[in-house]
Amino acid sequence: MAINVLPDYCSLGFIGPGKMAESIARGVVKSGILPANRICTASHRNKTREDVFQSFGVNIVENNKQVVKNSTIIFISVKPQIVKKVLVELKDDLNDKILVSIAAGIKLKDLQELSGHDRFIRVMPNTPSAVGEAASVMARGDGLEEKDVKYVSDILGAVGKIWEIEEKYFDAVTGLSGSGPAYIYLAIEAMADGAVAAGLTRDLALNLASQTVLGAATMATQSGKHPGQLKDDVTSPAGTTIAGVHELEKGGFRGILMNAVCAAANRSRELSS
């Protein structure tokens, strides 16, 4: 994947040094699109969070106002419940900054009204940003130029794949790719537990389960085949795989995953109401 290095005048700030901000910052530094010395976040009451960001070269500044002052592109990466407080506090300092919200459930119109600022992009990333395999979507506000959107798209494209969509689909995206890594981690853990019960060592079981998920996902994205066809390709008559699939179907596996996505999407809607 070709990397578009951001121009020298671009710098990146994070309001809220949480896990998602860390994932994006790590991914950006690893990709080479922006050096760590042009990224900053504010000091935090949890010193561990500061240490994590400093460990890969990110600058720690005194407060959120300093983050805004030192950055051209600012990620609002706090919990949804405190977005209003943060935006009201920073309202007079935003000027021509590009603001990127990754707060679940907070709509563009609310972000713009709270901040008095229309250069907003709303993004739903996920934690595989840290290893360059994010699945992210974005929706743009009213006051952005095409180059602004491109800069943010380049940042997110450097840490995975990015799609621009209509904002009305964000709750569904939150339930799928936003929360989805947790579902897959549960599946990897459960598959490994099954292998341990069948006699494998824990390390081998975890490695095989993780690589199997990675390989299957790569097949799904690169083969051009529907997942159902890929499943059929593995399930020979009266074989081992169809026996396992049968057990999954008896347990309602597909329905449970569908319900998980819908539950997370509904929670996203509750946060935005």
TrEMBL record:
<dbReference type="InterPro" id="IPR029036">
    <property type="entry name" value="P5CR_dimer"/>
</dbReference>
<dbReference type="InterPro" id="IPR008927">
    <property type="entry name" value="6-PGluconate_DH-like_C_sf"/>
</dbReference>
<keyword id="KW-0560">Oxidoreductase</keyword>
<keyword id="KW-0641">Proline biosynthesis</keyword>
<feature type="domain" description="Pyrroline-5-carboxylate reductase catalytic N-terminal">
    <location>
        <begin position="12"/>
        <end position="105"/>
    </location>
</feature>
<dbReference type="InterPro" id="IPR036291">
    <property type="entry name" value="NAD(P)-bd_dom_sf"/>
</dbReference>
<dbReference type="GO" id="GO:0055129">
    <property type="term" value="P:L-proline biosynthetic process"/>
</dbReference>
<dbReference type="InterPro" id="IPR028939">
    <property type="entry name" value="P5C_Rdtase_cat_N"/>
</dbReference>
<feature type="binding site">
    <location>
        <begin position="15"/>
        <end position="20"/>
    </location>
    <ligand>
        <name>NADP(+)</name>
    </ligand>
</feature>
<keyword id="KW-0028">Amino-acid biosynthesis</keyword>
<keyword id="KW-0521">NADP</keyword>
<protein>
    <recommendedName>
        <fullName>Pyrroline-5-carboxylate reductase</fullName>
        <ecNumber>1.5.1.2</ecNumber>
    </recommendedName>
</protein>
<comment type="pathway">
    <text>Amino-acid biosynthesis; L-proline biosynthesis; L-proline from L-glutamate 5-semialdehyde: step 1/1.</text>
</comment>
<dbReference type="InterPro" id="IPR000304">
    <property type="entry name" value="Pyrroline-COOH_reductase"/>
</dbReference>
<keyword id="KW-0963">Cytoplasm</keyword>
<dbReference type="GO" id="GO:0005737">
    <property type="term" value="C:cytoplasm"/>
</dbReference>
<feature type="binding site">
    <location>
        <position position="64"/>
    </location>
    <ligand>
        <name>NADPH</name>
    </ligand>
</feature>
<dbReference type="Pfam" id="PF03807">
    <property type="entry name" value="F420_oxidored"/>
</dbReference>
<dbReference type="InterPro" id="IPR053790">
    <property type="entry name" value="P5CR-like_CS"/>
</dbReference>
<dbReference type="Pfam" id="PF14748">
    <property type="entry name" value="P5CR_dimer"/>
</dbReference>
<feature type="domain" description="Pyrroline-5-carboxylate reductase dimerisation">
    <location>
        <begin position="167"/>
        <end position="271"/>
    </location>
</feature>
<comment type="similarity">
    <text>Belongs to the pyrroline-5-carboxylate reductase family.</text>
</comment>
<dbReference type="GO" id="GO:0004735">
    <property type="term" value="F:pyrroline-5-carboxylate reductase activity"/>
</dbReference>
